[in-house]
TrEMBL record:
The gene is ydhP3. One of its GO terms (cellular component) is plasma membrane. It is found in: Cell membrane. The chain crosses the membrane at residues 42-61, 73-96, 102-121, 128-150, 156-178, 199-224, 236-254, 266-283, 289-309, 330-352, 358-377. The lineage of its organism: Bacteria, Bacillati, Actinomycetota, Actinomycetes, Kitasatosporales. Residues 4-379 form the Major facilitator superfamily (MFS) profile domain. Gene3D superfamilies: MFS general substrate transporter like domains (1.20.1250.20). It is a multi-pass membrane protein. Pfam families: MFS_1. The keyword Transmembrane helix applies. Keywords: Cell membrane, Membrane, Transmembrane, Transmembrane helix. One of its GO terms (molecular function) is transmembrane transporter activity. This is Inner membrane transport protein ydhP. SUPFAM superfamilies: MFS general substrate transporter (SSF103473).
Amino acid sequence: MPLALLALAIGAFGIGTTEFVIMGLLPEVASDFGVSIPTAGLLVTGYALGVVAGAPLMTVLGTKVSRKRMLMLLMALFIAGNLLSALAPAFAVMLIGRVVASLAHGAFFGIGSVVAAELVAPDKKAGAIAMMFTGLTVANVVGVPLGTFVGQSVGWRVTFGIVAALGVVGLVGIARLVPDLPRPEGVRLRHELAAFKNAQVLLAMAMTVLGFGGVFAAITYIAPMMTHAAGFAEGSVTWLLVLFGLGMVGGNLVGGRFADRALMPLLYVSLGALSVVLALFTFTAHNKVLAAVTIALIGALGFATVPPLQKRVLDQAHGAPTLASAVNIGAFNLGNALSAWLGGLVIAAGLGYTSPNWVGAALAAAALLLAFLSAALERRDRKPSAVVAGTAPAEQQALADR
């Protein structure tokens, strides 16, 4: 794999760390600014919404800039946002810093996916995309626990300062290692927008929202679920999240390896298994060992869908994949926000802390149905051309005359 992928993975590591580390530092941040935990939770919500809005916005703004330069500008924006968070004198300023950093998230992964795919042979594209996303998954195993530990021990501001420094490393790596690939000739914003007329692109994005939403319906409420249902101590939740992160790493690598060979079958297996495992989590959540195994499986199955879904968007968007790729990253965060809201609704309805698992299972099952629909539409679209191509010239002329 090209060294340029390492630079992209470092940037992804920093972005993944800043996205998730705040969840472990909310009490410290709330206490420092004198706000409630729910109010501090706006730092999570604001980031997610910033990703959804920033993915298309930043990609559109970068349509006239080379992809390498845009990646560098996005990393600079990421650094600025985290520095603002680290130095924020008031909660509102930190919220602004979080939103500024989030604006780089979707476009970085969207443009980075396109660049990663262009750096390798056609049959290795999904593997290259998975290599970049490895930075995001490793962040959940290493960056988030370490960032939480540093924040709780030394201060949360130090954590965000370190994350900003990671952004600097990523920026330098991109500047030195990523080649300045030429922009595709003739591709303009209208070409990028045209990709959204393709039903397959929209179906892939819907699968992203529902499939990844299934994962976060459960994981968003993992702390109360594990302490109340399984009987874990509060301090054990960090290590359970490490297990989830390890599952993410494994699933991402497996997804990248097999998506180039059998993309749709991989989606069938991963989404189907994810739905079943999430449903079973309602029962395994009451046993410490089974709960830990299930959490790792959810991470693995959820992230096994990331490379194939991202590659499917790139393939179906054809010659103008950048905006569609970035919007698909926003779709992951839209799924996070949707599932967290739905999971909160069933808990508020008095159905218990394990009830979000049923929500997750239903969302993953819906994504599986969309995968079957996508494949059926693709077969239908190919069939007429295959029939015509297989007929004799006289028969083709007869068909044309009709």
